[in-house]
Structure formats: C-alpha cells, structure tokens
Specification:
It contains five helices and no strands. It is an all-alpha fold. It has a domain of 37 residues. It holds the Pfam family DUF6115.
C-alpha cells in the first residue's frame, strides 16, 4: 500500500511540475509580448517626435518666407483699410472696389502640355517597388526620411495576433 501511495505521490508531483512549467512559459510569452509592444510604442513615439521636429523646422522656414513676402504688402493693406474706413455705404464701397480692380490682370496661362502627375503616396510606393531605399526615396522626392518611414509604417498590413 505504501508503494502505491509513493507512486501516486510521484505522479501528482510530476503533473504539478509540468503545470508549473507550462505556466512559466505563458508568463514569459506575455512578458516578451509586453516588451515588444513597448518597443513598438517607443519607435512610433520617436518617429512622431522626429516628424514633428521636421514640421516645426518647415513651419519656421515658411514663416520667414511669409514675413519676407508680406513686408511690402503691409503698407498697401493699411492704405486700403484707411480708404475703407472712410466709405460708409455699401454702394460706395462697390464703386470703389470696381475702380480699384486692376485692369492689367490677365488670366493665368494654361499649359497645353499638362500631364497626369501621380500623388505623393503613389510616387513613394512606386519607388519602393522599384527597389529604392527609404533614404533614396526621400532624397528623390525632396522629403524627410522620417516622413517616408511614417508613410510605410501607417500603410503596413496588421499582423494576426496568436
């Protein structure tokens, strides 16, 4: 009878050890998955940060260009505002607006040779299909490398979770 109880005890111990081993494996998988998710989140955060920095730089350049171009037209705007303040009735405003309309304005010339221009996204994907790297695509399209990386990141197909 004792032999039977000892054998039964060893079997129970084996089953418990096996169950503990399986549980430890699942815990490790969960920890690895969490670590991978944190890495992906930090990569995305880094990409967004660098992308935002590029946008800030572009905004600063744009702002300086706008300031350079708008400096001469500011004096014209103040003159127009002073004239508009003097005019009280709607009909008088219309007459003055008609007089101020520039007779030298010409319609923009239409290019007969205008052709189809693919969108930025389709250009990027076409270059990627041809085998260009992200840096080469960015250089060729005169865009930031992170912008190209973000475009590919957002257009990735989601993977199945198992």
């Amino acid at each position: 009878m004792t032999v039977f109880l000892l054998i039964f005890s060893f079997i129970i111990d084996g089953v418990l050890l096996f169950a503990l081993f399986i549980m430890m494996k699942k815990v490790r998988k969960t920890e690895e998955l969490e670590l991978r998710q944190k890495q992906v989140a930090s990569e995305i955060e880094d990409l967004f940060t660098s992308y935002l920095m590029e946008i800030k730089e572009e905004n600063k350049r744009m702002e300086s260009l706008v300031r350079k171009k708008s400096a001469p037209s500011d004096s014209q705007n103040t003159q127009n505002e002073n004239r508009n303040d003097k005019v009280n009735s709607h009909s008088e405003k219309k007459v003055i607006a008609d007089k101020e309309a520039s007779p030298s304005y010409t319609l923009p010339e239409l290019n007969e040779k205008e052709s189809y221009q693919p969108s930025f996204h389709s250009q990027v994907f076409e270059l990627k299909e041809k085998g260009y790297s992200n840096e080469e695509i960015a250089r060729k399209l005169d865009k930031g490398k992170t912008e190209i990386e973000l475009l590919f990141k957002f257009h990735q197909k989601p993977t199945k979770k198992t």
